Amino acid sequence: VAGNETRSAIKVFQGDPSRAATTMARFLVNSTIGVAGLFDVATSFGLTRTKEDAGKTIGLWAGKGVDPENGGFYLMLPLAGPSNARDATGLMIDYAIDPFQILPIAFNWDWFYYSAPRYALTVIDYRSRTMFALDDLEKNSVDYYAALRSAYTQNRAELIRAKREKTDTK
User: Fold this and answer.
1) Which of 3, 8, 33, 110 is within CB 3.0–4.6 Å of 23 for a Cys-Cys bond?
2) In sequence order, what E strands does the chain have?
3) pLDDT tens for residues 131-151?
4) Residues 90-101 pLDDT 10s
5) SS3 assignment, position 39
6) Is the C-alpha dihedral spanning 162, 146, 119, 97 positive or negative?
7) Whole-angstrom Cα distance, residue 100 to residue 151?
8) 125 near 27, Cβ under 8 Å?
9) Do the Cβ atoms of 119 and 2 come closer than 8 Å?
10) Which of 25, 54, 58, 55 lies closest to 42 in space, CA to CA?
């Protein structure tokens, strides 16, 4: 459930209100029938889950003449992994509009006890999902850094191209 409102807003900015409505419907179903989001009931109702971020939105609206590979300089962010200038900016936007980051401020809760465990679990989950692929890439590449940079850039460029093509056809 966490971040569904954020993803819905990003889909509206990407010019895809039907997917934004689907995301809001998923949020409503999972937060009620799914016992406050503990269970993903919406998938069994045919509401597919999507992963969007502000970095893809910036890449989508960057303009027709800007290649998706041109996201700026490459970064390796501690605990967040590979990124570039565009996606790091998108990461900051995602963080700023995340309702679970706004709640502690609104209710004057201590950030460390509320958000730090959530962030730590997110980092552990991301690492566990990518551990084998990254280990394989490190073992089979001559230059691990260059291979990781290339794989990251190609993956993000393809996601932006797919989003542009889907938007252009409507």
Assistant:
1) 8
2) 74-77, 81-84
3) 999 999 999 999 999 999 999
4) 999 988 888 777
5) coil
6) negative
7) 31
8) no
9) no
10) 25
